[in-house]
Amino acid sequence: MPVTRAPEEVKFALEVLKLLLQAVWADGEVAAEEAEALHDYAVRSGVSQTEIETLDACLTGQSPLSPPNLGLLKPRRSEVLALVRDLLHADQRVHEDEAALLGEISSLLE
Predict the structure, then answer these.
(1) End-to-end CA distance of the chain, in Å?
(2) N or C: which end of the chain has fewer CB within 10 A?
(3) What is the 3-class SS of the chain, one letter each residue?
(4) Domain range for residue 13?
(5) How many domains does the chain have?
(6) Predicted TM-score of the model (pTM)
(7) Per-residue confidence band for 43, with pLDDT thresholds at 50, 70 and 90
């Protein structure tokens, strides 16, 4: 059953997804658990099927990653960092590159 969200919440979710894509690729590969967590977040957030297909292509390396709009994410920094942390732990391990990325994201959102 499709989820209906306010347009500004869907826009926020899309920008979070772009940021999360950067995070999952930080170690040079996307674990199946990370891909599943990201896909599930997109569905729960009410992102359109077209955007989910684009996300899936990015997760498999078939489509380039687009940069997130950090200006839209900064006001909700705590929420964004919690989402990134949850995603990075989806595969039950946090690689050194991913931990460094979390620090960089935290700085970028200040």
Answers:
(1) 36
(2) N
(3) CCCCCCHHHHHHHHHHHHHHHHHHCCCCCCCHHHHHHHHHHHHHCCCCHHHHHHHHHHHCCCCCCCCCCHHHHHHHHHHHHHHHHHHHCCCCCCCHHHHHHHHHHHHHCC
(4) 7-108
(5) 1
(6) 0.83
(7) very high
